[in-house]
Structures are given as structure tokens and as C-alpha cells.
Amino acid sequence: VTGAGGFxxxxxAVEYAYAHASEYELMWLFNAESEATxxxxxxxxxxxxxxxxxxxxxxFPAIMxxxxxxxxxxxxxxxxxxxxxxxxxxxxxxxxSLGRSHILINSREKLRGIVAEPLEADVFSPPDSVEFIRRxxxxxxxxxxxxxxxxxxxxxxxxxxxxxxxxxxxxxxxxYLKLYERHGLKVxxxxxxxxxxxxxxxxxxxxxxxxxxxxxxxxxxxxxxxQLFNLCAYCAADDIPLRLFIDGRDGAPALLKEFLDPKDAxxxxxxxxxxxxxxxxxxxRVGERARLTVHRLIxxxxxxxxxxxxxxxxxxxxxACSGFKxxxxxREELEEFSASLPHVAExxxxxxxxxxxxxxxxxxxxxxxxxxxxxxxxxxYVGALELCRKVLAIREKTSxxxxxxxxxxxxxxxLMYRAQGxxxxxxxxxxxxxxIYEKTLxxxxPRTAVxxxxxxNVYHAQGGYENALExxxxxLAIREKTLxxxxxxxxxxxxxxxGVYRAQGEYENALExxxxxLAIREEKLxxxxxxxxxxxxxxxSVYHDQGKYENALEHYRKVLKVIEKTLxxxYPHTAGGxxxxxLVYRDQGKYENALExxxxxLAIREKTLxxxxxxxxxxxxxxxxxxxxxxKYENALEYYSKALAIIEKTLxExxPRTAVxxxxxxNVYHAQGGYENALExxxxxLAIREKKLxxxxPNTAVxxxxxxTVYHAQGxxxxxxxxxxxxxxxxMIKGLEEHPYAKEWFSAMRACYxxxxxxxxxxxxxxxxxxxxxxTWCA
Length: 779
Known about the structure:
Blueprint: H1 9-19, E1 26-31, H2 35-49, H3 60-73, E2 77-82, E3 102-105, H4 126-136, H5 142-151, H6 156-169, H7 173-183, H8 186-189, H9 201-216, H10 220-232, E4 240-241, H11 242-247, H12 254-259, H13 265-277, E5 282-286, E6 289-293, H14 296-305, H15 310-323, H16 331-354, H17 358-378, H18 381-398, H19 404-419, H20 423-441, H21 446-462, H22 465-482, H23 488-504, H24 507-525, H25 530-546, H26 549-567, H27 572-587, H28 591-608, H29 614-629, H30 633-651, H31 656-672, H32 675-692, H33 698-714, H34 717-733, H35 740-755, H36 763-778
Parallel strand pairs: 1-2, 2-3
Antiparallel strand pairs: 4-6, 5-6
Helix pairs in contact: 2-3, 4-5, 4-6, 9-10, 10-13, 15-16, 15-17, 16-17, 17-18, 18-19, 19-20, 20-21, 21-22, 22-23, 23-24, 23-25, 24-25, 25-26, 26-27, 27-28, 28-29, 29-30, 30-31, 31-32, 32-33, 33-34, 34-35
């Protein structure tokens, strides 16, 4: 039985002996903490059981031969060798034949040369730890007992020492936890009289640390392993990826850096083997990836009981800065990010309190910035926003409120607000960043143009298309003047303006700018670059909106060809290419072709991004659209619900994308004739859009129109007319009267007017009156 000190190996052996006493004729405990104590115990065994009166005149090998013969010939016995790590030649002290007897060996280290069934000692289970505390501490509240167990990592010895301390000093558990939080292992370092066990948490580990430290003085591999262990002490306790240290090895001590060569897997195994041998870490493998776990109290002992060392915190921070970097393009990278995140977060947290110089604080900010980017790609905008605020606090403190780094922090916070659909706060923060850029760099600097672009994108998302165009044009003027009309950043602005034109339904203007951007990208990057493919995609989207399906397919296929050649057939972008072509097939009524491609896209996204990624949700949504068009409503609801579950989990119940999902489900119920269900879901969508986007956003107008169509189907013509006209007014206010939606809605409103009993000849005058009184009746 192996495991670090304090895991209850000795007590478990004693408990086993009591529980199975009836099965053995004799039970004997040998103290193997050194060869001297073990030899003394073996000689005592001979006197007590072998009929030897005095052993001083007998050489030890003769005693062991007598011992082996006795075990072989006598009834069953249980021989327990405790603390066997202290006896390297343990094999010489074991009987050579067991007969019906059993041997149980306890050791903090993995023993060499011993053939036995291995068992790893573990901490208490959560229920067992609570039961133990409640048995030792009278009237313990279960919640308090659980909190104490988790605080001490459910380590048996630590819980025993804590319970004894509580009993001896007349504390309750919550009072003890406050004491432990303030003083750490100091409250576990004493030996309360209320426990019969003669060792404390620190004393059971000090011998292990001393032994490996002595070995490290003469063995470089052990020294490197000890350095790795010291780094692990400043990470989170569970599942520390070895890959983090390999990728960030430039920050490691020179010796350890040599052993972390990415091409030397056997060398990595040797390092880990040193630590597992001493039971300082446990090893788990996820595929080929090694994960190390250190008990949290052992970590605390390294940091507190045996001296906190700022040098190791600094090294960990350097490792995090250089090793915690990802492109987030695949599921594997997202999983590696997720595995490393709790550890770099813990490193940064500890560094904040220890390394107060500006350089270190800047490194902490860089780690948080990388973490916030990963959370953004994972769709965790709330978690990312929390880290953005930490970065801002560091930047304001170290660089000042008007530094460019501080402006960058404002930008990142604004991006998270925008991703959450909180456009008001996004604009406020982007404007703060812009103020710094204009003051520091001037109104015509390319970075100022980036700030203009960011503000324009928020206005676009809000449906404020004229404002968006105004800010994009300001960005364009800077880029054309400072970078030139043929620069790639200028091409980006052409693309952005084209996107606004497309949203307004001004397709020819959109195409003109897309082609300007395309010409620049083809010349600068070539026809097979991913950015060039992005422009093909934008052109295809405009053709798709226009109903020019063959032109759209031509350009979407160009996109797919570039992606497959550049990234491969199973990359998330490839799934996006399939997705777009499938939607054109759907609009052409080629439903089976559409479903075939969507299923290919889904397989890629589930494999590369996971079943709960927002892009996977998009594919579920698109499959549902095809099923809805085929009037396979139950299938449509199934896939819309899958998409909704991911969106609600990732973005929350008040995000604009959640409103889209509610709207889609409502449309299925409408098609089925379930009008009340449809209204319920449309109203949920409306509540989000009015709150997040405002009552005059084009998407809010879409919801008004959708509700109007349900009222119309129910024969509630007057209510339908109010909402039809409201939706139309919003589009006219936004300058969208030529948008295809507006034309469709106007026809629906005219038909509803006549069905409500209005005279066709009076429609124009009724509509004119509505336009005049819009603000009043809308309110």
C-alpha cells in the first residue's frame, strides 16, 4: 500500500487486522522505518514465536531462515511491515515462503524488487470524511463537516489533527475554519493531546522531503524532478498538465528545461516516475497527455511549512506566459486550454500577492488576457469579463488611466459586453478606449481607426446602420490616408461597410465594396488565402440574399476549396463551408442535398469543437430549418431544442441569440397551428430584444411582425394590423423601406387591412395617417 504520509496507511492496516482477526492464528506489526528497527523487530519476533531465548549470539541470516521455515509450516498469520520506505533491502527481511500467510506492506515510496499487488492509498470519500468528523466532533453540522473536509482535502491525518484541535480548544468547526484560513498549516503542526497518533501533517512529510532533497544533491534527474514538483506546488492541485511545463520550459530552471525536451517522452516519464515513487504526485493520462495531481496540503506544506519561495512563483509565472498560448481552432486546443486554465489562474492569483513589481504585474495581466481570449472562444463571456476587469485594474495601477495598455483593456471589456448583447456598456468602453487613442496617438492613427471600427460594429449590431456607416467611413478615411487605398486594413473596412449595406438590403453597394476588398486581398495575399476566401464568402452571402443561388454557390464553393486545401477536410472552417452551401440548397428546395451537407458539417463540429459549442448549435439550428421547410415539425423542434440548450447554457437566457432560438421554435408551433405556444415563445423573444436591442431595432421589428402573423392566423386582425404597421415603421425609421422584408411585410399588412374589413381604396390614406401618428399610438 503506497501513498504520502497522512493518508492513513498504518491505521488502515490496523483496522484490517481487527476486522479479520478470526482468520489468522497470529498477527505481527514490524516497524520498517529503518533496517535497525526492522532487524530488532524480527529478533523480537523470533524470541516470542520461534522458541529462541536470546538472539544476540545468532547472526541475522540464520534468524531469517528460522523465520521463513516457521511461516511455511505454521497456520496462517498476518505480517504487517509499516513505513517500509525506510528499508531499501526490505526483500531480505521477508519470509521466502508464505504458505497460508499474508504480508501487508505500507510505504510512502514505490518499492523496487518487491513482487506484490499494488494498492494506492487515497483520501476519504466525501461521505466518509463527513461521517468521520461527525463521529469525532460532537454535534457537528453536516454542512460544516463537509466544509472542513474539503478545506483539508479529506486527508485522514489532517482531519484527525483538526478534530483533536477542535476538541482540545473548545472550538466549533466554523471557528476552526476561520483560524485555518488565517494561519494555514500552523494549526495542524502541533500535536493535540486529544489524539493518540504521535505524528502531525508536517512531520509525516518532512522525512520524505528530506530524503528526496538528499538524493537530488547527487542525482541530476532527481534534482530536476524536485524542481518540477516545486513548480506543481503553485498550480491548482488536480490534473496539472505536464504539457504546460513543456510548452513553457523557457521559464523553468536550466536543468529542468533540459529534461522537458518535447521530443524526449522517456525523459518526461523518468521525471514523473521519481515523484510517483515518493508518492508526492499521482499520475493520470488523458490519451498521451500526462496529468499530475498533488494533494493540496502537500502543496501548502511546500509553500508554508517548508518555506514559501517567491523564486518558484516567478518561474511559474514565466512558464504560464510562454506556455499558455493557443489558436483555439480545434477541439484539441480548446481542451488543452481548459486543462491548463485552472493552473495558470492559480499561478497568477498567487503571483498577484507575491510579485508586486511592474514587470511581474504585466506578466500577470498577459496571462489573464490569454485566459480571457480562450474563454471568449469557448463562449464563456461572463468568465472572460471577470478576467478583463482584473487586467484593467492591473493596467490602471501599473501604466496609468491614459496608457495604451489601459485602452486595450477597455477594448477587451467592450468586446465581452458586445458578445453578451450589452451594447450600451460596449459603446461606453469602446469610447473610453477611443479617447485614449485620440489623445495619445492622434485622430488619424491606424489604431484610432481600429477604435472607430469597433464602435461601428456595435452600432451595426444595434441596427443603427447610418451610425455604423458614419464610423466605418471615419476609419476608412484614416486607413486610406495613412496606409493607402490598397492596404489590407483598408480592405477590411471595405468589407465592414459592405456588411452594413447588406443588412440594409443595398446589395449592389455591398457587392461593389466586396469586390474592392477582393481585388486587394487577391493581389496581396493570393487567391488561395483564408482572408481572400472570407471575401468570397461575403460576396456569396449577398448573392444568396438576392436569390441569385447559382452565383452564391459558385462563390461558396470557392471558399470551401480554399479552406479544404489550406486547413484540411475536418477543420471547423470546412464545416462552415458545408453549412453555407447547404443553406443555398435549402432555399432551392433541394432538401436532401442540404441535409447531407449539414450532417457532414455537424460531424466535423462535434468532433473538433464538441457537442456543446455555439458553432455546433448553429448546425443543429440549420438542420431544424430544413426539417421545418419539409414540414417535419417534430424533427425541427428536436434540433431547435438542441440548439437552444447550448445557447442558453453558453450565453444565458437574455442574449439576443437566445431570442433567435425562441423565435425559431415559435415559428414551428405557428406552422403546426399551435398559436398559443407560438405566441408564448415569440413573447419570450420579444422581451429579450426590447431589453437588449431596444424597441426600434430591426430584429425587434421582426418579432413584432412574427407576432402579427400569429394574430392574423387567429383572426385577430386589429391587433395584427397594429404590429404589422409597427414593424414597418421601424424599418422606415432605419432607412430600410427598400429591404426585401419591408416589401413582404407591406403586402401582408395590406392583406390584413382588407380582411379586417377595411376598404382597399382607403388603405393608402390609413397608412399615411399611421405614419403621422406613429409615436403616439406606438407609445
